[in-house]
Fold this sequence. Notes:
The chain is an alpha/beta fold. It is about 45% helix and about 15% strand.
Amino acid sequence: MGWNRGADGDGGRLVLIRHALPNAGVPILTALGTSLRFSLSSLPVVEVIFTWPGLGMLLLQAVQQYQIETATATILCLGLLFIVVNMGLERIYRVVDPRLREEQRGLIRGRSWLESLSGTWYGLQEIPDRLAEWLPWGKEGKEKTVLPSLPNNHVGGVELTSNDLQRTAAIRQERRRAWRQSTLGSLPFTLGGLIVLALVAVFIFGPAWAPHNPYNSQPLSYTNGQLVAPPFAPSDVYPLGTDSQGRDILSLILVGARRTLTLALFAVLARVAVGTVLGCLAGWFANSALDRLLLSVVEVIAAFPALLLAMVLIYALGIRQGLWVFVVALCAVGWGEPLQFVRSQVMSIREKDYIEGAWATGLGDLQILVRHVLPNLLPSLMVLAFLEMGGVLMLLGELGFLGVFIGGGFAANEAQGQPSLIYFDVPEWGVILSNTWRGFRSRPWMAFYPALALTVAILAVNLFGEGLRRLTERLTLSLNRLFNRYTLASATAVVAIFVVSMEATGPWGSYVPQTKAFDAQRAMADIQYLAGPELNGRLTGTADLDTAAEYIAARFKELGLQPAGESSTYFQGINRGYRDLTAPPELIFKDPLGQPIVEVEYGRDFVESPDHLLETFRVRGDVVYVGLTPDADVWPNTGPVLNEAEGMIDPFTLADKMVLYSGESIPGALRRVEVGVLLIVRQQEELSYRQLPALHAQAGGVWYRQIRIPCIYISPAVADRLLAPSGYSLAELDERQANLRNEEGFSVETGVQGELSLEAAVQREMETRNVIGFLPGMDVALDEEAIIVMAHYDGLGRAPACPEPVLSRAEGQGRRDGTLYPGANDNASGVAMMLEIARMWQEQDFRPKRTVIFVAWAGAERRLRADVDRFLRAKTGFIGAYRVAAVVELIGVGAGEEEKILLDRSTSDRLTELFQKAAKRLKVEATTRGKGIHDDYSLYPYPKSDLAQITLTWEGSGVPAHTPADTAENIDQEKLSKMGRTAALGLMVLARETKY
Length: 996
């Protein structure tokens, strides 16, 4: 450099300090800023490995638990930190390099991007004519211009000299030598190309090369005479060992390559496509308002760490929605770099002479970009695509490491906010890493080989991309022969023929017409009977439920299902005890003078809590408001007070009081003290939903403890009326409670006295029957696998009636007259759909290869879990003869607030994808996000994680459920038909196809 030569008289150290460091300052600071972004992006990975509590761990837990406020605040804080760093670097740049203080001026065309819209419009109008020219028949009737042939060895009639010929030959020879050196002589190009070809081979033939079925697990194995549990170390049977579920890692890697590479390919194509389009616009209209807007957006996105932002977007869009969610998220966090690259290239190209010539001929902006700019960008875009793919694969590996992968899997055994085991059934390289790194030291093969596969793939695309970069820098590549009208038309035709042939010859194409036999009218007849007033809501422990069971069993026999119950019947008897109200509870509130202060009605203003262990009792006492933090385990001594008369009440004085509490869950400190009655504030709409007392011992994945003290839900309006004598409102005390710190609390005496009377009956050892039938599998290799189709048929019965007749109030209000809860959608519709699918199969003589077991079971409204093992134990020999391959639950299939099928409570990514494909084939929208029936995991149990299980319902089906409005008249037959065809299609593929 000139300044370096001019400083020869200075010492070497002075040259370094005075000249070299200031000129290298900008690149160094830029590298530091970029490193900060990548460091912040890796926060969750580091903190998960070392279990350090920090922002990364906090953000990961927030997005996994859908805590939107926490996730948003955390990601904004990290983004703000990076923005501040960038602003500081911009200031430092100008101090370090004085040249940056001067205004930069570049060559611009002098036209705004808005002015070019008119020219672009004319260019768009020419598109049909341009497309017609590409078609062979589009050239008919047009006069062809025949150009004279170029002279060979002659110029202007003068023969070329031998020197000219030698020079031309030397140029061609040099070009061929450069090609050889840039391809076969280039280690990155050759080595990267060979590995890329190997990856392509694995992509195509990987599933065929897999030595084992990657979907089958090996729970136990005999080794040297001992029974050993997985994971198994590498051996002759399992060359790379197995994972914790006993699945062959080599097979998982070979089969998972297709999904991982497909996702990376689509993400890269999306990034490059978006970046190219926007980069062309930004570069062509450099320094315009559009250019500044796009660059500002890129800077904002760059302010957020890529891994963290991608994770937030994936959970926001729905991790179970499929591949497109990951493509969108990975594109959203990475399109900025291609934009900046393309922008710089376009700014350089637009100043070329041939662009000026095209402009002079009258071509518009769009035409110049498409005809002249884009073809010159293609070689560079190919290089960029390979380099981008390495970054995408790295990001996929980090996401999978954190348990963020397609489908989301099913987490179990959570400790310190992180699952120790994630179940997945769709192989993908990233997800294989999610369960392996914790045991790396004792079982290194589980993490090493998946990590090696990702490493080799990243190394391959980076090497090949570097080789392409060197090739394009040394040689001018023309891709016109590769990308022209003929090659593109041929590729389009091949893809179209492939898609059409797959649609016509694949299993889906043969099953779709058969689903038209689903008859919603027949299903409606079953719904009308089961939801009719004669069955009184099908309450467990009553003769009405037995009548419904007899009806379902008769229909099973009529439809040709073989008995799978006890003693060659369709029934499986289970003895249980029940607790139910015999009359509506009575609740009265009075002032100190004994005068009623508020009129409350059962079912409108208050209901019993389903968490309460129902017993007959009468309680009278003063009403006191208690404020506690949600996680309070120890009774606080004191807290913030509003006046001298306030403080924290002594817990030993609560035995004869009514404690008013407002919160989603009851704190442990309040559960551990003796209380007369708990009055829990709930929203008004929650009080109109009928809930039966639970029978099970576990719900929500944790041990469920019923509250032995009386517990009543009241509305916010009643709570406000009770607090009025104290001078406070419920909103004021809720805000005060939200601001409490740990181990703080407060109480407020209301001056109101309450009285509660509740009568309950205990029925012990009442028999409830499941109804079970089956179709045996017709394939020797598959008949040992069972598909269970189930729907619960019990309901809510009638509301407890007063001893004396009471006029019925408007619908949705008081429930003191024995109001019927028909349960048409929840869940007579599920049973009816199951019966109609069986009828459709009988009519079409459908013979499944896998055994299909149909189960109408009772106990869901008592919050019992469907016990699949118990279903199989009903018939002698079933429990050892069949392995459950999938469980499909039908619930709320006849009505919903939305027009989307909800694939709910899935523990299997394969089942989710299967029914997504089924819905797509029938042109029905499906989603994995929404609210169905029994979605409150705090009350209803999780499905078992070791079973492939899914629930089919309609989004918003829980709105009419558990109310008197759930009648047969409100069933939507169109929805019933769409869901029936979708469920039938998915079940037919499940029952007959070896791979699904």
